Amino acid sequence: MFARHLVALVLASTVAACAGLTGCATETSEDDSNDPSTAAPGDGTSEDAIVSEHSLAGSELPDHTLALSFDDGPGPRSKELADYLASENIHATFFINGKNVPGRQNMLAAELAGGHIIGNHTQNHIQLTNIPAAKLMSEVTLTDAFIAEVQPNGPWLLRPPFGAWNGAAARTINATPMSKYVGSVFWDIGGVLTDTAAADWDCWGKHITIEKCGALYMNEMNTRKRGIVLMHDIHSNTIDMVKQLVPQLKAQGWKFTTIPEVPSIKRALANVSAATAGPDACSSSTLGKSVPANTCVQSRTDQKWHRCENKEWVDASGSADAKCTGAKYPLTTP
After folding, report:
1. Mean pLDDT, residues 107-117 taken together
2. pLDDT tens digits, residue range 129-174?
3. How many helices (H) and strands (E) does the chain have?
4. Considering the entire predicted model, what is its pTM?
5. Exposed, middle or buried, 25 (CB in 10 Å: 0-12/13-18/19+)?
6. Which residues have a Cβ under 8 Å from the Cβ of 237 and sit 6 or more positions away?
C-alpha cells in the first residue's frame, strides 16, 4: 500500500459514481427558476455502479434520523441558510468548492459560528478519477487551505465531485499530508430526480416548483427512513425549500445529526491514523478498518458481499465464495 492511512479514505473498485444517483450542479444565479444553467448535469455518472463497501453513507443511522449536507458553495445565500439551520438547532455539513470562497469568507465563518462543519468538495468541481495525480492533489489542497484557515482542527471530510472515486485517487491522496481526510462521503437521499425522489439542482433545471421538489424529498426520506441528505446551497430555491422542509420534518418527529456522527464515518474518523493490513489491503466502511487481501465482508449498506483483491473491492457471491480465503465478516459479526 502506498499510504499509511488507507483506512481513512474509502476505496472504489471502479469509478465510485452514483448507481442511479446524481448530484452537485454548477453554480448558478439567484433566480434558479429562470436560469437554464441549472439543467446542467449533476454529480453522478450513473453508468458506473458504486461499490457500497467503499461508500460512507447513512444507512446505519437510527430510524427517522437525517444528516444534512450541502455541496458546491459557498453561494449567495449560504450564510442565510447556515443561520436558519442554527436557529433550528440543526448542524449541517457544507462541502465547499474553493473557487467559490474568495469574497465569501464571511460565509465560512457564519457556518462555523452556527455549529456547522465545512468539508472539502475540491477546488473546481472536476472528476478526480480523470485527471493526473498532480492535478488531483491541487484540487484537494487548494480547498484544504481555505478549510484549515477557519477549521484548523478538523474534522477532515472529503466528498469528491460526482461521487467519483477509486483506489488510485485514494492512494494518491494518502501518500501526502491530505491523508488526514476521511471519504468518500456519499449520500442516501437527494441524488436523483424521479417520480418518487428529488435532486434539487435537477428540480430547478426542469422548472419544478419548490413545493413539488420538497414533497419529493419528503417522499424519499419517508421511504428510506434515515440517511445523509444531499442538497446544494448555491441554489436560491434550495434555501427556500429547506425552510419549508424543516418545519414539516420536525412535525413528523424527524431528528437531525451531524455527518461525523454517522456510524460509518465515525468509524473512519476513529481509524484515520491506523496502519493498513498489508500491501494489498482494502479499507472497509462496514468494519471501519483495513483488511488483508481475500477478506470478504458483507456490506452494511446493501447487504451484498465484497472481496478484497489487489487493494480494491470486487463482488463476491457470498461467504461460501471459493475466493474468500481470508477472514469472513457477515453482518451478524459484532
Report:
1. 96
2. 999 999 999 999 999 999 999 999 999 999 999 888 887 888 899 8
3. 8, 11
4. 0.82
5. buried
6. 32, 33, 200, 203, 204, 210, 213
CA 161 to chain centre: 9
Q: What is the DSSP string of 199-219?
A: -HHHHHHTT--HHHHHHHHHH
Task: Kindly state the average pLDDT of the residues 111-135.
Answer: 96
> Do 309 and 275 form a contact (C-beta atoms < 8 A)?
no
Among 220, 188, 164, CA closest to 58? 188
CA terminus-to-terminus distance, the chain: 27
Residues in CB range of 42: below 8 A, 6 or more apart:
22, 23, 24, 25, 162, 199, 201, 202
Pairwise CA distance, residues 95 & 274, whole Å: 25
Given this model, what pLDDT does residue 312 score?
Answer: 78
Could you identify the residue written with the cell 416548483?
A: 209
Which sign, positive or negative, has the C-alpha torsion 50, 52, 54, 59? positive
